[in-house]
Write a structure and sequence with these properties.
341 residues; Rossmann fold; 2 domains
Length: 341
């Protein structure tokens, strides 16, 4: 097992410890109380790389609760869209290292315009020192490509969002602890779970990661890290957008990894009642063009010679990203071989 996978196999333990810490200390309470003063009308999440992708897992949830929310690349937020930062916008800046130059530029530029929340792993970092409301990932040291820190960022975003809307209770904690248990079991059997997947994608020339809604966070993360680690040509695409021509280049040797909680191969699209859902249509399209599909879902779907199904527990959709990242990290680590030692 290489160094990257040695970190990955601790993800279940790290999540449990993070949840224990939040239940005991409730570090999101000050931020939730601040937002509930009525001073803010919206929330802006900003980061770079993995820290940019993670909050996509909660923006739909916050919007559904009547809280306008958005995610911006920290560079774009600072240089091109700074008008989004105002006294009515709560800024949540995210950085594992706490020193990403684009994130630090944004928070320094934002000082005096709004309050700044910092989600950060390194507790002695610049972000931890300069954010008015630091919240720690508690992921521990990370020496390789983002893995457990991304998982911890997802979890902190979920906990923070729930606290802001007044729903941080067992409805949130129970499924998160169940996910941590599932992670432990999956990672204890990492070889048995990963080797068949490696054999399934053997000969792949490029891999795309597709998802809609909250799951796009994991697909974007995988699109980046598979380039960083095993140096695979990848793209991360919204599945609905993928249907507008991305599938035209699919041929033998192509693999699409689709994250789709609640997937039903026979369900019709609510807006297009004569058509299957976009996930089902794209799986069919990829197969018809000679490609293969890895489906990450909580549904009971059988694998075939062209479809490899990874099933995770049924949880609220905004939490599914925590499960989706586990097999992606295992696959990537296995493909890296000795490169991460």
């Amino acid at each position: 097992m290489n160094g990257f996978l040695e970190e990955v196999v601790t993800e279940g333990k790290v999540l449990k410890e993070l949840l224990d810490y939040h239940k005991a200390e409730n570090p999101t309470k000050k931020v939730a109380d601040l937002f509930r003063t009525g001073k803010y009308k919206r929330i802006l999440f900003a980061g770079m790389g993995s820290s940019f992708y993670a909050p996509y897992t909660v923006v739909d949830y916050l919007i559904s609760k009547g809280i306008p929310s958005m995610v911006l690349n920290a560079f774009e937020a600072s240089r091109y869209q700074f008008g989004m930062v105002s006294g009515e916008t709560l800024l949540v800046a995210i950085s594992q290292s706490g020193k990403s130059k684009e994130v630090m530029e944004l928070i320094r530029k934002s000082r005096g315009h709004t309050n700044i929340v910092g989600i950060v792993n390194k507790e002695d970092s610049l972000l931890a020192q300069e954010a008015e409301y630091p919240i720690f990932m508690k992921a521990g040291p990370e020496n390789f490509i983002s893995n457990k820190s991304f998982m911890a960022t997802l979890a902190v975003c979920i906990l923070l969002a729930a606290d802001i809307v007044g729903e941080l209770d067992d409805r949130v904690y129970q499924p998160l602890y169940e996910l941590a248990d599932w992670m432990d079991k999956y990672l204890t059997n990492i070889e048995a779970n990963t080797v068949p997947l490696i054999k399934f994608i053997e000969g792949a020339t490029n891999i795309d990661f597709l998802a809609n809604g909250p799951s796009i966070s994991t697909s974007m993360e995988a699109g980046l890290t598979f380039r960083e680690g095993p140096h695979i040509t990848t793209a991360a695409v919204n599945t609905a957008d993928y249907a507008h021509g991305w599938d035209r280049s699919v041929k033998e040797g192509y693999v699409g990894v689709i994250s789709a909680p609640g997937y039903d191969p026979k369900a019709l699209d609510p807006a297009l009642p004569n058509l299957l859902t976009v996930e089902a249509r794209m799986i069919d399209s990829i197969h018809e063009r000679g490609g293969k599909v890895v489906l990450i879902t909580d549904s009971k779907i059988a694998s075939t010679n062209k479809l490899f199904v990874i099933k995770h527990p049924q949880v609220p959709e905004r939490m599914a990203s925590l499960a989706q990242t586990v097999p992606c990290n295992c696959l990537m680590g296995w493909m890296m071989g000795d490169r991460s030692r």
